[in-house]
Specification:
This protein is mainly alpha-helical. The protein is built from 24 helices and seven strands. The longest helix has 28 residues, at 203-230.
């Protein structure tokens, strides 16, 4: 196994490499645009408005500074996956005292959490906020496990380890506030580890590690607060990342009971009906660890963290978007690895064979391996020059996204406008700005906050705030996206042209020069 593990590890990493040719998804386009705004010296939310907390925007600013191309999204996703897998190896050894659980968890994660199992080859879930949250959560857990000594280890608490774990959890919080659930898991884990040592000092014994975690947790949050305070953008930060997200999340629930019902049911539904065998294996592993925790309290660690992941997912909303769930993948893999190792050691040869055969059958039955193989093969063909760019990009199309149309739009904006001219794309196509190297004429560079009437009537928000931005900056081109928000019951183009103030403003100053199934393109009239 020692020789086989690195071979399998490398093979599963290499299988992901062809994804670097994929275009970036719609969400990633938003992050990239705000990241480029940061690189220009602008401030998120004040100058470029997006609902996600700031960590993902600064991460994309760094990513695009390293490599300003769509491929950096898949590259970052692969780097994060490798980091998670290596951390799982170390964490499994730390929690079990052996190599097997961590190595099994790493292989399960690399195999079953591959985005190529998902729709459009997983384009929408690569390098999402949850990708980095999962990485930070596993790293924090490893630091906690190493920072609080086991009963058999005659050494003191490692304050720096616990403080650093708190910092990582604070960073996870800044990717999405619902990731604050992991801080509760971290505190519970520290207390559990202290009690496992048989320490009789009670409050004094467990207060120290929790305080160190809390001290680290507030550091990145405090720095972010000071950054936005200095920029005069605290109000914008609150409206975008708290007020809007509370509205966004509550839209999916009928109240607290709705959230609770979703929290209880979605793990089972995801394991059995959503073609995600990692949730199946991780769920079984979590249940087995709970059952076996009577013999060893430390077996509660992974159920605690899996529960935190589920809570984080539920707080985010009940839409069931695939990116919400990927934060739990590393923890589920580790739960499966730890429980599998315990079962392997407890069973005789025949039960082992039966158990492994049953689990392999379930994984093959649940997971769409044919889809993952086909997606990876198609990426590889394009990487090797066996498929033309139009034919390849045509594969990435849905009701609200067309990679071909987005490519053509970016090329049009770049060729028909000057770098110092502002443009405006009203829809869900932030990557058009990024590829064209153009700035939006409004901080609302995507349309949903306007469509749903967020803060309508508040100065600087709603259709009136958008119109103020456009009137002040006179974009050379206005692009209206069609068919982009089916769930909202109206698309961006229809909303804009039928709005009693936006429509007349557009028609008085611009003329429709072209349209396709995705975009309407309006050019500014001569002399306006």
């Amino acid at each position: 196994m020692k020789r086989l593990f690195p071979i399998l590890f490398l093979a599963l990493v290499l299988v992901r490499v062809p994804s670097v040719v994929q275009p970036a998804g719609s969400d990633q386009g938003l992050y990239a645009y705000v990241g480029q705004a940061i690189a220009r010296g602008e401030v998120p939310y004040r100058d470029a408005w997006d609902q996600k907390p700031p960590a993902v925007h600064f991460t994309y600013a760094l990513m695009y500074a390293v490599w300003p191309d769509d491929s950096i999204v898949a590259v970052a996703d692969i780097v994060a996956a490798v980091g998670v897998a290596l951390l799982l190896v170390a964490l499994g050894r730390r929690l079990s005292g052996g190599r097997g659980p961590g190595e099994a968890a790493a292989l399960l994660f690399l195999l079953l959490a591959n985005p190529s199992f998902l729709r459009l080859s997983g384009m929408y879930v690569r390098a999402q906020c949850e990708t980095f949250i999962g990485l930070l959560a596993v790293a924090a857990l490893l630091l906690i496990a190493d920072g609080v000594p086991r009963p058999s280890e005659y050494r003191r608490l490692r304050p720096l380890w616990l403080f650093a774990a708190g910092v990582l959890l604070g960073l996870a919080f800044l990717f999405k506030y619902n990731a604050g659930a992991y801080f509760a898991a971290a505190g519970a884990t520290a207390v559990l580890l202290v009690f496992a040592r048989g320490d009789r000092r009670g409050l004094v014994a467990w207060a120290a590690p929790v305080a160190l975690l809390a001290a680290g947790f507030v550091v990145p949050i405090g720095l972010a607060f000071l950054y936005f305070l200095r920029a005069g953008a605290l109000g914008d930060l609150y409206q975008a990342t708290i007020a809007y997200n509370l509205k966004y999340s509550s839209e999916t629930y009928g109240g607290r009971l709705g959230l609770l019902g979703y929290l209880v049911t979605f793990p089972v539904r995801h394991a059995l009906w959503e073609n995600d065998s990692l949730w199946l294996l991780g769920g079984l592993g979590t249940a087995a660890l709970l059952v076996m925790a009577g013999r060893d309290r430390l077996r509660l660690v992974m159920p605690i963290w899996v529960a935190a992941a589920c809570l984080s997912i539920a707080i985010n909303g009940g839409r069931g978007l695939p990116q919400y769930f990927i934060q739990a993948s590393p923890l589920l893999a580790l739960a499966a690895g730890l429980a599998g190792a315990l079962a392997w050691n407890a069973f005789a040869r025949v039960p082992r064979v039966v158990l492994v055969a049953a689990l392999v059958f379930a994984v093959v039955r649940v997971s769409p391996f044919d889809k993952a193989i086909d997606n990876t093969r198609f990426d590889l063909r394009y990487l090797r020059g066996g498929v033309s760019a139009p034919a390849y990009l045509a594969r990435f199309a849905s009701d609200r996204y067309s990679a071909v149309a987005l490519r053509d739009l970016a090329a049009f904006l770049k060729s028909t406008t000057r770098p110092d001219e502002r443009v405006f794309v009203f829809g869900f196509s932030g990557m058009a700005y990024v590829r064209a190297g153009r700035q939006s004429a409004s901080r609302f560079f995507w349309s949903r906050p306007i469509l749903v009437g967020f803060n309508e009537g508040v100065p600087g928000y709603g259709a009136a705030g958008l119109l103020d931005d456009l009137s002040a900056r006179h974009p050379a081109v206005v692009v209206l996206q069609q068919h982009d928000w089916p769930a909202e019951g109206i698309d961006s183009a229809t909303y804009f042209t039928r709005h009693p103030r936006l429509g007349p403003w557009l028609q008085a100053r611009y003329e429709l020069t072209s349209r396709n199934d995705t975009y309407q393109i309006w050019r500014r009239r001569a002399g306006v």
